[in-house]
């Protein structure tokens, strides 16, 4: 799928709100996915850079969470890939990396014209994550409604 094609993908008006959880730690991706489900998202997971690229190539996502440490690859590589596809949805960095590294990665993502939320440090404040995902779900719902009108 080309970047131009990806930018034209539109979800069906009644399509579930989708969340891609990119994290190589199963426990973290499971927790984030469950919170996503509880806030109304339909989550999918990717445990590596390669899986993330494949998932993003197969469908569009309303929201993405991203860990910065993905084995041989860094989360910033995922951001660069997302920028080439024209991804416009919100990206939430959830990482155990030092705050400085998270903040710098957000700056890089914003320079790439990506929609990055402020980063969340691990261990994750689950209540805060739930509130943030709830906000993003509401925004995605409004966006889908606007696309129908």
What percentage of residues falls in helices of 4 or more residues? Answer: 40-55%
The rounded Rg comes to 14 Å
CATH architecture: 3-Layer(aba) Sandwich
Largest sheet: 6 strands, parallel
Characterize the structure shown:
The protein is an alpha/beta fold and 149 residues long. It has one domain: Response regulator (Rossmann fold, 3-Layer(aba) Sandwich), CATH 3.40.50.2300. The chain has six helices and eight strands; from the N terminus they run αβαβαβββαβαββα. Strands 1, 2, 3, 6, 7 and 8 form a six-stranded parallel sheet that branches. A two-stranded antiparallel sheet has the order 4-5. Helix 3 (49-58) packs parallel to helix 4 (75-85). The chain is globular.
Walk me through the topology.
Layout: H1 3-8, E1 17-22, H2 26-38, E2 41-46, H3 49-58, E3 63-66, E4 69-70, E5 73-74, H4 75-85, E6 90-95, H5 99-111, E7 115-116, E8 120-121, H6 126-148
Helix pairs in contact: 2-6, 3-4
């Amino acid at each position: 799928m080309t970047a131009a094609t990806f930018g034209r993908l539109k979800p069906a008006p009644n399509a579930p709100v989708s969340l891609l959880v990119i994290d190589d730690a199963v426990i973290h991706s499971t927790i984030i996915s469950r919170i996503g489900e509880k806030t109304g998202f339909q989550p999918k997971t990717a445990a590596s850079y390669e899986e993330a690229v494949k998932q993003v190539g197969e469908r569009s996502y309303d929201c993405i969470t991203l860990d910065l440490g993905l084995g041989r690859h860094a989360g910033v590589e995922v951001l660069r890939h997302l920028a080439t596809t024209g991804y416009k949805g919100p990206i939430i960095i959830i990482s155990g990396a030092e705050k400085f590294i998270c903040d710098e990665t957000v700056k890089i993502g914003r320079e790439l014209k990506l929609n990055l939320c402020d980063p969340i440090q691990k261990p994750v404040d689950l209540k805060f994550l739930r509130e943030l995902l709830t906000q993003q779900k509401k925004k995605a719902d409004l966006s889908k409604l606007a696309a129908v009108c």
